[in-house]
Amino acid sequence: MAEFHKKWSFKEAPKEFTEVLLWIDRVTRVTAGWRQLRFRASVVIWNMKWTIGLWVGKAWEVVVAIEKAVRDAKKNLIKFEIDNWTIAHDIEAKFKAASVMLHPASEWTWIIAWGAIRKVLSVSGIKDILAKRYGSTNWITNALATIKALWMIKPAKKVAKKEEVVVEAPVKVEAPVKEAKVEVKKEEVKETKKVEEKVVKAPAKKAPAKKPVAKKAPAKK
User: Fold this and answer.
1) Does residue 2 sit within a domain?
2) pLDDT band at residue 2, thresholds of 50, 70 and 90?
3) What is the pTM of this model?
4) What CATH number did the domain enclosing 48 receive?
């Protein structure tokens, strides 16, 4: 029984999530009279079911700060799906002043990214991906923007359905109707000219000239 409890004790049991410490910073808080020194720990947790979480914990000791970060990260988990160890479509995510763009990559490309984005992607289980950063250079902001981008990943099946092109029936275009040309033979033209020559115009009647009327002078008395 002792061996059984030793083998399956709580401390040696396999953990559901893999914990990865991204970085630790020392933070000073100035108050009236003295400075308060604390530690800030950023932790990423991930499991084989494509679930990931990121959070930041602060405490007077490093161990306590890590425990706080892990505890809060488990409360803020996201799930995503990938196909052939890469993403199925392009993604652009923005968090505060940081913007992250993720692009799918072919096999054996590995992870091409910078700083905090590379750390988060290496923990997420994605092997082939391209990433680019815009805006802020803050590590925490970029890491949270990457988590948001992973949350926006869509399954490959849904992306394939959207890319299907609907084939429409071809529209028949009617050719313009050409007007028939009326061909007039030369013989008919000659006959019409002869008929026009034979027609004699009737002389126009002149109006009769009016005779001038002489005015008589009045008789003298």
Assistant:
1) no
2) very low
3) 0.64
4) 3.30.160.20
